[in-house]
Amino acid sequence: MRGYWVDIAAVGFFALEWAVYAVTLEQTAYGRDSLSARMNGYREVWIRNLLHREARMVDMQIMASLQNGTAFFASTSLFAIGGGLALLRATSDALTVLGALPVDLSPSPALWEVKCVGLILIFIYTFFKFAWAYRLFNYVAILVGATPPASQKDTAAAKAHAARVARLCTVAGRHFNRGQRAFFFALGYLGWFVSPWVLLLTTALVVIVTWRRQFASNAWQAMEA
Prior knowledge:
The chain is built from 8 helices and no strands. It has helices spanning about 5-25, 35-50, 55-90, 90-100, 110-145, 155-190, 195-215, 220.
């Protein structure tokens, strides 16, 4: 155990950075100015404008686009799980390849398997997030279909329904974002297969890149009020 303290520290740093970033983005006042939060505001605008349209074919096309994108990522997660299982099964071959490198990067078989299992668990989490987001977008599509006609747009029932649709759409988007975030951190996790020191570096890079996209990207600037 004493020989693995660097690995334990690196994985702890990885988990802590993921958790802190997620909480900051979703639960703090600072996160309410993120690109995702700004898009949530436009989800509400979209649904309010939906009430004024009698023909809603464009809105259903938007829903189909959201569902198709989510389904793509969910299926990709399954392929990633399969790849992780194949990597776990090929432990001896992988260690042979690593052992032939000029720099000794080969961990013990037990540690290699722990790394593989951790990667598989991340992709399982990713799949569940995307699968649930897909289900929620299905629910949103049903609610869009149940939206009162434009002639009733000013009624209390219609406004309450629009608010309900917007809330559910926001929840679906949140789970989709969590799935994407898990994909990004899975790329950082791959650094552990090289070295715990590389894991520290790749984790920091993932946080920097994802933070920049949410708070300093051209897209974020374009969404400024």
